[in-house]
Design a protein that fits this description.
The complex is a heterodimer of chains A (273) and B (349).
Chain A (H helix, E strand, L loop, with lengths): L1 H8 L1 H22 L10 H4 L4 H34 L2 H12 L6 H12 L4 H8 L11 H25 L3 H9 L4 H30 L2 H6 L7 H10 L4 H25 L9
Helix pairs in contact in A: 2-13, 4-8, 4-10, 8-10, 10-13, 12-13
Chain B lengths: L1 H16 L9 E7 L5 H11 L2 E7 L2 H10 L6 E5 H9 L3 E2 L14 H7 L9 E14 L23 E4 L2 H11 L9 H14 L3 E5 L3 H6 L5 E5 H10 L3 E4 L5 E11 L5 H12 L1 H11 L6 H6 L2 H4 L8 H5 L1 E2 L6 H16 L2
Parallel strand pairs in B: 1-2, 1-3, 6-7, 6-8, 10-11
Antiparallel strand pairs in B: 3-10, 4-10, 5-8, 5-9, 5-10
The chains are: A mainly alpha (273), B alpha/beta (349).
Amino acid sequence: MRNLKRQLLAGPYLLWMTGFILLPVAVILYYAFTTTSGSFTFLNISSITFSVHLKALILSLKLALICTVICLVLSYPLAMILNGMKTKSQGFIVFVFILPMWMNFMLRILAWKMLLSNNGVINSLLGTLGLPKLDILNTPAAVVFCMVYDFLPFMILPIYNAMARIQTDTIEAARDLGAGTITIFFKIIVPLTMSGVVSGIIMVFVPALTSFAVSDLLGGGKVLLIGNVIEQAFMQEYNWNLGSGLSFVLMIFVIASMALMNSWEDEGRTGVW
Amino acid sequence: MKKTLLLLFAILAVFCAGCGKKDSPNTLTVLNYGKYMEPKVLDMFEEETGIKVEYEEYITPENMYTKYKAGAIDYDLVCTSDYMIEKLIQEGEVLEMDYNKIPFTENLEQTYFDFSKSFDPENKYTLPYFFGTVGILYNKDMVDATKVDSWDILWDKEYSDKIIMADSVRDSFMVALKRLGYSLNTSEEEKLREAQKLLIEQKPMVYSYLVDEAQDEMIAENAAMAVVYSGEAGYALEYNDKLAFSVPKEGSNMWIDSWFIPKSAKHTENAEKFLNFLCRKDIAMLNFDYVYYATPNIQVKEALDQELQENPTIFPPKETLDNCEVLKPLDDETTMKYNLYWKEIKSAD
């Protein structure tokens, strides 16, 4: 009885999961493997090999990778600095990092568009200082820049959490045994924060890979990511079958990258799965 | 146990609240382009007739088609562009309109019903709302005004990175096809490939591909030229007097946005009342002031001051219109070609 009660508590989530995760995925699968008239086909899936779609997928992978690497390079030292600070100021700094997330994602992208535009704030500032203009709006660089800006907290927080969990005893013990700073970093800090790094990478790479809004707004319609191709298939072409087929391929890439990252991680404690 | 049961009931209640489709006779569901009607008009209509209007918006005709075909909402009245209406008529999705129940139809100039014949040959399905052309909105300080009379200027290296193209398949292809001297409704593969080649060649010079935001970028002087609808140009001109508008001599696209009653309509009578309301002089005037596109409503046009009536940006002169073509719907195969070619342009370096 007691056990049943506990299981019932999961009921709402179960309903949620079936209604909003499992069913939609089933519908996507159905569309992905059928033609507009409803007969079975592999064409929607294999259309990923069309040069346009392949190009978009490769560009998405490339930008997502660049974005993840930049986030990691920025976050790791930052998390270390943060961890070394007094507890009181730590809370405040973490709060500052999360603060932008209180604002709507679209609004933040649009704000960057205004800032970066030809006659925008940044360029007029550079102009008055006699510096050359920054011409990155409507290029892949702007897309990566904004993705880094948006996804950075998702990298910092798990790494910072993993780091905060390292007992100072462990480090002191290592020091007692004669380990130098570099040895401590590579033999203790890095392995113990690996789980945080892995979740950080997944949490940045996956949304970066599937994003389409950033490239649409900051790419000026010139940067075609796989997400944009899918969006166009649904919204412009009224070809839900093609859109679903490509979504399915993208799902495989997402799952593969997650599996790859998780296989790296030992005894994942803060892992995503 | 009692608690868990209560919880379950609560969840069920929440789920069921969304289930039952309410269908009261005193409503009207309207689907229209974004920023295409003075919001006050809806309240005024409700006040006068007691009919509650559920108002929805979309961005491009293709979006409208997706929304309509999804079938989740039974729309009573839809406004969209010529070629999309023709497509829907061909698919049997449009109901015949009873103009006798819309007496204010007489306020609309016959000329525009004649233009409408290109997509509604017997004038029995649609009611024109606004119309206009597509042309180049340019900044007089940045662009040599003598050159804007031709689409060639959009391929001029001098304006590299200062050009805004339309982020819409048909409109962008229209520019390239017209520059080549072809019809904008062509389905010949060779001509389409030629147009695509031109657009790919142009891509490195393009600042961005936009639809609705093009006017804002031009007002902010972020670009020198943009391919826009005449109505948007009229709006932008109000905000920045360095801007001007030109419809190139090679010809362009003339579009008519019209209302139609779709097959999904549940409140046809309310839709007719609403259409009649829209054609009434005071309401049409309110909408004209808000949208600032050319109106087929003669009562409104005559009430405007002379200068505005003769403004070529808002009311395209007859010579311009004669040089323009109305978009026709394409067959499925050609649509697929267009979509593929467009993606190839978008992914080109």
